[in-house]
Automatic annotation (TrEMBL):
Keywords: Electron transport, Heme, Iron, Membrane, Metal-binding, Signal, Transmembrane, Transmembrane helix, Transport. One of its GO terms (molecular function) is metal ion binding. Coiled coil: none annotated. The lineage of its organism: Bacteria, Pseudomonadati, Bacteroidota, Flavobacteriia, Flavobacteriales. This is Cytochrome c2. InterPro entries: Cyt_c-like_dom, Cyt_c-like_dom_sf, Cyt_c_III_dom, Multihaem_cyt_sf.
Amino acid sequence: MKKVGNHNSITRKLYLSLGLTLVFSLTSIAQVAAPEAATPAPADAVAASGGDPVKGKELFNANCAACHKLDAKATGPMLRGISAKHEMAWIYKWVHNSSDMIKSGDAAAVKVFEENNKSVMTAFPQLSNADIDNIIAYTSEPKAEAAAAPTGTAGVPGTAAPENAISNNVILGALGLVMAMLVVMLFLVNKVLSKVAKANGIVVAPKEPTMPIWRAFAKNQFLVLVSSIFLLLTGAYLVYGFLMQVGVDQDYEPIQPIHYSHRIHAGSNGISCKYCHSSARVSKHSGIPSLNVCMNCHKNIAEVSDTTATPDHSKAFYDGEIQKLYKAVGWDQSTQKYTGKTEPVKWIRIHNLPDFVYFNHSQHVTVAGIECQTCHGPVQTYEVMKQFSPLTMGWCINCHRKTEVKMEGNEYYTKIHEELSKKYGVDKLTAAQMGGLECGKCHY
């Protein structure tokens, strides 16, 4: 009989390939030695003045941070290491009443006054010498150096790579090798079976021709009718859905020329929406805040806190956006003066109603007492502002149907509320029952 192949040889080859795969996989997923623990930072040294830097930081933030920074010039000079420039007795007098020292002709006081654009420092007679010692102790601390990023670590910036992590490339490579082995095995098995069949005189019967499925489907009139109706209904539904989305810009999230984080301002700092959008209380439009409103705070805030950074936006990114603001308003941070050279900021509008729709912010915000988040969503969580609501006619009508009119302190609606509440037999009226569904309310 004719030999059909050496099966033991094939088996040995398969076992050898499997063994090499296991060795390769075990080598690839070997554990990486854990990095050495970081050396703890030394404890903060107490300043030579004998003050407490922890208490000094609290006093500094409460009394000094509005005009001074530790490592940069603001309205007043930078204060880190200020104790090395002046004697403590002089600092006590300056903090308690700097104006008297300037009037008396003190040379050092006059020099500080002239170097800082003749800005008059607020007197702090309520601060004791011990309080000033604590502040000086805080300003005498050495500047903390940023921790160096560990080398040899791959991954997304701002995220630490997990220990003993297995590379995706290694896993994909192992899976690819296994798939290749399966293909080779199938090829070898087919080859062996073909030899066995040929050696034993076995002939494989050819396949009988069959009718193509599309021809069988075309001959069945019922299936053709049902499929045609289904396709017509599906097409009409898709066309209707597409047309109903024309002009609807929900979740529109453009990139602005200056990055403004509502998460930081409205969320972390708790700034009221109506502080920046003040015209929303008295006008039809909420208005775009002027850059002067921004400078009310950022005249002295040239950089953000380290805790503000996120994996997507670093501290350097936020500080760079503040510099864009300074460039737009013409603010020279070094001299603490406006240069007069301004640049317009081309903000991109997000919410844009059609011209035939009338919407009054003051009527909703002031009269109705509607919160901004009702229409604009949880803006205090947005890093980039977007359109939260669809702002469609149906969405507005549904809001009018379910929103009750607030009557507390609203005498404008008292008389009409009494009459309509009797008519509808309810205690509180909705905006729809007060005429909120009339066409002329929203359309010219």
